[in-house]
Design brief:
alpha+beta, 12 helices, 366 residues, single chain, elongated, 49% helix, eight-stranded antiparallel β-sheet
Amino acid sequence: MNKLASKQPFGLERKTCVRHFEVDKDPWLAVNLSMFFPGIGQLYAEKPLKGMGFLILQLVLVVMTIWELFSPSGNTIAGIVCLGIATLVYFINIFDAHWSVYDERRDKILEKIPRKRKNPWFAVFASRVLPGLGHLYLQKSVIGLFLLATTLIFLKLDDIFSSLLIVTPTLGAIASYHTYITFPRRQPRLGRSLVAMMAGLIFLIGIVSNYLPQWIDRHLEMFHIPSESMIPTLQVGDRLFVWQSGNYVPQRGDIIVFTPSENLKQLDPNVSEYYIKRIVATPGDVVSINQGSVYINGQARQEPYIAAPPQYDLPSQVIPANAYFVLGDNRNASFDSHLWGLLPKQSIVGKAFKIYWPPERIHSLE
């Protein structure tokens, strides 16, 4: 009698735990969490090893992608491969997050994609994919079509007007939150708090995703080499990353991209939009060229990167403030400062720091 009494509470407790999992864990909430970053949905599904594995793997891939693509010593091909793997891991993680809860529940009436029994977290997921889809899923056609049309319109407009980039993240956050709180069945307070936090994150991530490319575009330029003036350092067809910064202080040896100065425009009837040369002398330096060598402050420079010694001489001159003396590495086939004079600082676009293409030419320029 005593043994039977002791077993009964244990059986009831076990049944309660299973029921607790079925009520609280939702596969589409796991999906929504994993959309923020791989592994979070698995951690929610109480799969800690799998969750940490996804999280660490994705973090490593993201860091490697950024390093390989934008570091001077990184390999562009490796960066592209890491980006591809990171994208694949992200989508696998989303499917796995769903399955980690769905498979555990083993509920015969649970739909993988809920149709008969509407799911508020699936509505949130649909709204994150495209604002309005979640409301259409809940058969709220008017607001759904309004949000969908407005989103599609602003996705086009924000390409033209950068001030509108804030609109689509706002719509995404509002649509995700609204689909949950207006779901036909009343949702628990914890779920409302969670979806409010998620809406805030959706907005912040959307803002970063929209404005980050603009920030990169303002600071990182890509250029194509059309001439032989920088041989052997730069070959025709090389593609470069050039970093632009208001704090950049040009140094001797830097390879820079610049717009043509007034002197250059007057001498070149077919003036290009951009030029690329190496800085040889900076403000305050005394520069001269004599018998095939460049002298800076009376010292001959060692220049192993040039194609051949210059076959011209240049009398000494002092470089004034905010001006630079630039030469091509192919000294005898370069239209540079020995012909058109000094380069004003305001003409400098930025510093070239890496050849990122073609694959066999990838290397640092620093």
